[in-house]
Amino acid sequence: MIDDVSSTHNSLIKLAKSLDRKKTRSETGLFLAEGARHVGEGLDQGWQLEALLFSGAAETRLAVQALAQKALDVGARVARVTDRVLEAVAKRDNAQSVIGLFQQRLSSLSSLMDAPFIIALERIRDPGNLGTIMRTLDCIGGGGIVLLEESCDPFSVEAVRASMGSVFSTPISKSDFASFNMWRKDFGFKLVGTSLKGSQRHTDTDFGTKTVLLMGNEQSGLPDSWAQACDGLVRLPMSGRADSLNLAIATAVTAYEIWRQKDFFGARD
Fold it and tell me: Which InterPro entries is this protein grouped with (predicted)?
């Protein structure tokens, strides 16, 4: 059954609105995904949908009708809502016509042991950067992202938006550095970090067949002890007055070089 909801005081809407807070996401294990295409991707990849909100004005679209039926089929609560309600949930004007409430999902390190390429992020702080890195890894078919130590929430509204749906196809794991470093050695991963102290350009470096790209956080880069644990440090060449790139851009530049060395394995024609 599809419920009709027009009040922002409805219990489901109050829950959806509260998922912009990390505390609520932690307590409920839920997060928001916006847009029919992205919600559809989550369903297609087997993520558990708890509730679906859609605009009554969008109900004439066959894709939205099909999505609502699919949500009902998997046992999710489905509500037809007003544009005002959607804007209240999304906290912005001109909100997407479809919003899904999904269960969060984290991957174990053991599930990544056969991956050819992993990105490890040291205490990343900016959810926009994290979402963009998810999207980048998805584009190149990487194995997953490991968040090291205390990092921003991969299921925050900002990170999910920046991922453009890639949150559903990018395995994410969490670990402390010592445990992760031991694990990657056990499974034969080469650990390569980016650093201004790097001795080689990224294009002159052999990243190996199983690679972890270790990126330092936005403020201070890799701690010295972590850099010393790397099998190699690389640097990105600079020409102008700036001495560094945005974290997400630096990750993308280096990740694409690693993929190039793998002959762009899996690339679509």
Answer: Alpha/beta_knot_MTases, MRM3-like_sub_bind, Ribosomal_eL30-like_sf, rRNA_Methyltransferase, SpoU_MeTrfase, tRNA_m1G_MTases_N
Tokens of 130: 């994290």
The answer to whether the predicted template modeling score (pTM) of the entire model surpasses 0.90 is: yes
Nearest to 55 by CA among 88, 109, 97, 6: 97
- What single DSSP character describes residue 98? E
109-261 carries CATH number 3.40.1280.10: yes
Contacts of 181 (CB under 8 A, 6+ apart): 191, 229
Which sequence spans correspond to the domains of the chain? 2-103, 109-261
Cα within 13 Å of Cα(6), Cβ side: 2
Cα separation of 256 and 261, whole Å?
A: 9
E strands in 75-201: 77-81, 98-103, 117-122, 144-148, 172-175, 190-194, 200-201
CATH code of the domain made up of 2-103 = 3.30.1330.30
Cα gap 189→213, rounded to integer Å: 10
Beta bridge partners of 30: 103
pLDDT digits (tens, 9 = 90+) for 40-96: 999 999 999 999 999 999 999 999 999 999 999 999 999 999 999 999 999 999 999
Closest CA to 122 of 63, 163, 174: 174
* Both tokens assigned to 244: 């560094």
